[in-house]
Specification:
This protein is α/β, with parallel strands linked by helices. It has one domain: Roll (CBS-domain), CATH 3.10.580. It has 5 helices and 7 strands, in the order E-H-E-E-H-E-E-H-E-E-H-H. The strands form 2 sheets. Strands 1-2-3-4 form a 4-stranded mixed beta sheet. Strand 5, helix 3 and strand 6 form a beta-alpha-beta unit. The longest helix is centred in the first third of the chain and has 11 residues. The radius of gyration is 19 Å and the shape is elongated. The relative contact order is 0.19.
């Protein structure tokens, strides 16, 4: 995969939910934290969808235990991409699963990065700058006369 991939926010098993939420907040760029073992193997992911669906959804009791282990809330065995997969594979997975972040793993399933939607957009803009920069704001929009002096 030639798309730039970011360094993921990774935590170890047994980390508290509160620690994971603080890690997500501190990055300012991510909306997920990846849970890996000591060898870097991907065990799960805690996403915004997990947080909102399980912590502030209709089934939530009176309080949330921020000291609970993240394993109680994370998604186990998340969909991943391998380094050999294409941008098209990433787009298809993002579209079909409605994912914004996809972990990238090696052949042993060790976490080596994360691809976000913005990474793909940057890749496409850098790969096809002339085509993208020359598009009107709305492709069906046509100017009746030249703009400017």
């Amino acid at each position: 995969m030639v798309v730039g991939r970011r360094q993921p926010v990774a935590m170890s098993p047994g980390s508290t939910l509160g620690d994971c939420l603080r890690a997500i907040q501190s990055t300012g760029t991510g909306d997920s934290v990846f849970i890996t073992d000591a060898d870097g193997l991907l065990l799960g992911v805690l996403t915004e969808r997990d947080v909102f669906g399980r912590l502030v959804g209709p089934d939530v009791a009176s309080g949330v235990d921020l000291d609970a282990p993240v394993e109680a809330y994370m998604t186990t065995d998340p969909h991943t991409l391998r380094l050999s997969q294409t941008v098209r594979d990433a787009l298809e997975l993002m579209q079909s699963g409605r994912y914004r972040n996809i972990p990238v793993v090696d052949d042993e399933r060790r976490l080596v990065g994360v691809v976000r939607q913005v990474d793909i957009l940057k890749f496409l803009a850098e790969s096809f700058p002339e085509e993208l920069l020359n598009l009107p704001p709305r492709p069906h929009q046509r100017m009746e006369q030249a703009e400017g002096g």
